[in-house]
Amino acid sequence: MNGTKKEIKMGREAILQSIKKNKPEALPMPIIDESAFYEDIDLLNAFKSNIALVGGTIKEIDVAQIDNELKTIYPKANHIVSATSKSTLGTIPFSKETDPHLFKDIDLAIVEGEIGVSENGAVWVSNTNSLVRALPFITNDLVIILNKSKICIHMLHAYDLIKDRDRDFGVFISGPSKTADIEQCLVVGAHGAMSLTVLLI
Amino acid sequence: MNHAKKAEIFNKDEAKVNWHDKALWYVREKRDNSAHKVQGWEYLRELGSAIKANVLSNLDEYLIQFETNAQKNGIKVHWASNAEEHNNIINSILEKHNAKKVVKSKSMLTEECHLNPFLEKKGIEVIDTDLGERIVQLAKEPPSHIVLPAIHKKKEEVDVLFQEHLGTKPSQGNPEYLVSEARKHLRNKFLNADVAITGVNFAPADTGGVVVCTNEGNADMGVHLAKVHIACMGIEKIIPKEKHLGVFLRLLARSATGQPITTYSSHFNKPDEGKEMHIVIVDNGRTEQLGREDFRASLHCIRCGACMNTCPIYRRSGGHSYDYAIPGPIGSILSPGKDLKKHSSLPFASTLCGSCSNVCPVKINIHEQLYKWRQVIVKEQKQPIVKKSVLKIAGVVLSKPKLYGFAGKSARFVLKHAPRFMIYNKLNAWGKARDLPEVKNENFDEWYKKRNKNG
């Protein structure tokens, strides 16, 4: 182990020395003028059309109607994990200590999203929302509940909104998992969720 | 074998080359449509370029800041000067955990370091989990594109590969069926993996975390199920602030595939409870490239592949003809810095049309660097005697207007009246597989003067 440690240290010093020797004169960090990206658009409509563009489904709905709506969309879902108090459909009790391998056969996961981005239909989901990090990925179908007042215009604004979070794990999710690796044919449902429904409340 | 020779092999199947050419151009068009929808796109590119330039000018400080912040969050940071150190570090982590099964999401760096064969020799199973990468892994080939690793394969070829390795039924290359079978096959690998290795798209110094972008969700499936996550990054993946992701994530997917963003942009800042997270920071020739003023900006690259999709040479020669982990225009300016002799034909695999520089989201002057590498190579590498003498004669002719006029006249006369075999032979690469344009009686100069008189 000692040998390895020494080698690692050498790598670090050697790299830093080499950068010092080879780097150019200091160049300034640019100041971002966000007004250059301003557009007078309807955030909600743009968000909706971008969710559709990336292969997701979106619906505006009353909180009280969530369970009924989900029963209609996913009539065959039996193994359901709900990480939100806004739905009572969960059939599998779990906590943040649950081994994610136990989720391998779940049909549906329901989580809350924190913010939506209108330019690309992405929704920020952190492990505060999903409790188990693997949940939004390992589930067959994914539902994200999002408050429509939490939609922002673009990614720069999105990073302002999440800057004070407790940083452990978080992900922008834009649509269901997909691939075009076979002859450029788009196939929805690669390794992550096969479908994504965003419920706007 | 040089680029032209390998390209010749790829060009044997004309129908496939035509398909490859069109498929990539279609991706380029999707990039255009997507970029044109963004208010302030050109300014966004300028910002991307300026942020990367700032990173390179202060890279040592940013790396130290990144390391400190990562360690604060319980991430173990390792440094590797070269490929060998990188591979050894990963092996020592695997040994410590007695890991035998590894799932890996896309990482061009691990390709560059030849990690897979290194680990396989030690009896470790390494599964590439990006579908395109899995396809080429099963075919025992390297990726031919950094974003679309199996773009050179037809669906019928994938069908046969899957029948052989995954036991699928013949489907005449039905993409839906093949993807669903791959999903089952890889799900099993995710569920049983000991360690997940990922690449890194961006590493903000102010948070010490890493961001990984995928469409398939394979990086997350691997990381969240395995007990150890190893993220491998080149030193140039650093960005100063997390907020700058707001610039780069807007540029990356639009430039790569025309999507407004990848399906998943995952931010790994802390290991999950009871698990371990490692980051391996790799040099492997990058600091040397940093010292080359003319070629420094090649380190801005965010690996979107836009320069490949637009390149008329790449589209018609295929990624394998470059024989380097990163093919295409960007690979042709990165590789000579690694091994000038081995990759000396790559800067010549270009028409210098400049399309690569025009689409680059971080404004790397790729075509200018290609031209500069040519100058370096001509000085340092032995050139073929034919090329040398032809260029010498051309130099003399071009410097003497009268001689130039005479040479042009004679050439036009010969091209018009000489028998076919004298013009279309091995010495004339321009006459290969096509006819030269019709020869006129006068040159441009004469035509222009006459035109002025008449007009």
UniProtKB/TrEMBL annotation, chain B:
Keyword Lipid metabolism appears in the UniProt entry: no
Keywords: 4Fe-4S, Electron transport, Iron, Iron-sulfur, Metal-binding, Repeat, Transport
Superkingdom field: Bacteria
Domain 4Fe-4S ferredoxin-type intervals: 291-312
Alphabetized PROSITE patterns for the sequence: 4FE4S_FER_1, 4FE4S_FER_2
Alphabetical list of InterPro entries matching this protein: 4Fe4S_Fe-S-bd (IPR017896), 4Fe4S_Fe_S_CS (IPR017900), FTHF_cligase-like_sf (IPR024185), Helical_ferredxn (IPR009051), LUD_dom (IPR003741), LutB/LldF (IPR004452), LutB_C (IPR024569), NagB/RpiA_transferase-like (IPR037171)
Coiled-coil stretches noted in the UniProt entry, renumbered to this chain: none
UniProt cross-references to Gene3D superfamilies, sorted A to Z: Alpha-helical ferredoxin, NagB/RpiA/CoA transferase-like
Protein name per UniProt: Iron-sulfur cluster-binding protein
Organism this protein belongs to: Winogradskyella litoriviva
